[in-house]
Amino acid sequence: MTSAVRVVRETTELILVEIGVGLQHPHVGPALLILSELVTNAVRHAAALSPNVTVTYAAGPGVFAFAVHDRHPHLPALSRALAAAPGSGLATVVAMTMELGGTAVVRPDADGQGKSIWITLPL
Predict the structure, then answer these.
(1) Strand (E) or helix (H) holding 92
(2) Which one-letter DSSP state was computed for residue 115?
(3) Which of 16, 105, 95, 93 is nearest to 67 (CA)?
(4) What is the 3-state secondary structure of 22-49?
(5) Whether this model's pTM surpasses 0.85
(6) For the segment 11-31, what is each residue's pLDDT rounded down to a tens digit?
(7) pLDDT tens for residues 46-96?
(8) Above 60 in pLDDT, residue 104?
């Protein structure tokens, strides 16, 4: 698990630099933590049904988005994460995303056998 998180963090840093976002930008550290939590959750909770995790990136003027995808059918309820399990990885993801003025959305796969959690953050 730690190697997956490390690879994703390092890849994300390279992508951010490539799109012109300095690693000292105040949202980079929180974005890396959010991404790390999502990958950790996917590896920890979905690995039995989904040995592969995919991270997708998107960027536009003033915005950076990423998604963590797995093929486990469980759809976490992001809107209830803070109340249901304060301090959990998912609650941390939702709280940090909201504090940064971003959005968090769960998008199920068309066949219902997986999902992507998309995080969009302003830069």
Answers:
(1) helix 89-99
(2) E
(3) 105
(4) CCCCCCHHHHHHHHHHHHHHHHHHHCCC
(5) yes
(6) 999 999 999 999 999 999 999
(7) 877 788 899 999 999 999 999 999 999 989 888 776 666 656 778 889 999
(8) yes
Separation of alpha carbons 63 and 70, rounded Å: 24
Distances (CA, A) of 118 to 1, 24, 98: 20, 23, 13
For 2-18, give the secondary structure using H, E and C. Answer: HHHHHHHHHHHHHHHHH
* Token code pair at residue 108: 């199920």
Cα radius of gyration (the chain): 14
SS3 87: coil
- Give pLDDT, residue 92: 87
Which SS3 state, helix, strand or coil, does residue 55 take? strand
Tokens of 43: 């590896």
Burial class (CB in 10 A: 0-12, 13-18, 19+), 9: middle
